[in-house]
Amino acid sequence: MGLRFTVLSSGSTGNATLVANGEKKVLIDAGFSAKKLEQLMEERDISGHDLDAILVTHEHSDHIKGLGPIARKYNLPVYANEKTWEALEKQIGAIAEENKRVMETGSSMDLGTMKIESFGISHDAAEPVAYNFYEGEQKLSVATDLGYLSPKVKESVADADVLVLESNHDVEMLRMGRYPWNIKRRILSDLGHLSNDAAGEGLCELLGGRTKRVYLAHLSRNHNMTDLARLTVGNILEDNRITCQDHSYKLMDTYYDRPTEWDSLDED
After folding, report:
1. Residue 175 belongs to domain with CATH number
2. What angle, rounded to 10 degrees, do the helices at 34-42 and 67-74 form?
3. What domain range includes position 235?
4. What separation, in Å, do the N-terminal and C-terminal C-alpha atoms of the chain show?
5. What whole-number distance in Å separates Cα of residue 38 and Cα of residue 115?
6. How sure is the predictor about 242, in pLDDT bands with cuts at 50, 70 and 90?
7. How far apart are CA 13 and CA 171, in angstroms?
8. What's the mean pLDDT in 189-211?
9. Metallo-beta-lactamase domain spans which residues (predicted)?
């Protein structure tokens, strides 16, 4: 069995994604209470007992809220780079020493036949990362909380069969919103979040190869809408003459309150 995944929930209020193959199941981030994470996994017929590891992208609360409780309850190894460990330890409580695993940025590891690779991203955290997953020739990339799509990030996610990519906000909705200007400036900066426009412009360079589906993720509940994100990104791609028909790709939704359906890369 090849790679399959479900975005359990994604947005400004919490994030968690589950990646699996025939023998291993890995949780990326745990941005909800343990109870909520268990409910989300149960909707996709997964128990915490089925998990083999948790990967952490960075220490912000919408990515680690339930990390400590879920790791302790199911005795799970937790992987993060050294700087992220230093930043999150006081937030998550005690983790058994044998379960504190260091995976430095840019390194890779094997969990059974699944290969996992981390790469650095631009965000206002200690040392944020995103992840690639490989099973044979299959490649899944999960990259959110991106201030911008750097050349390194584009290189890292290039030719993914499926890409989960941040499309956080509509710029005008954010500018007109109620957030204080200092928060708006942070979100709009190179250490903030990727807008719908930036996601579409980046995909103009990334599509055309092997990528069959792009999931638009980490949408702001205050400054974005699912249909708007998909429409904005799709229009930018069409304006650059990148159409679904020509390149056989699909734009897919993620949700802040429920999981996506299981997506199998074997179906590509």
Report:
1. 3.60.15.10
2. 70
3. 4-267
4. 13
5. 25
6. confident
7. 19
8. 93
9. 13-218
C-alpha 43, offset from chain centre? 19
What type of residue sits at position 72?
Answer: R
Amino acid at 94: A
The pLDDT, as a whole number, for residue 265 is 94
Total tally of structural domains belonging to the chain: 1
Return d(Cα 115, Cα 210) in angstroms, integer. 19
Number of other residues whose CB lies within 10 A of the CB of residue 227? 9
pTM of the entire structure? 0.95
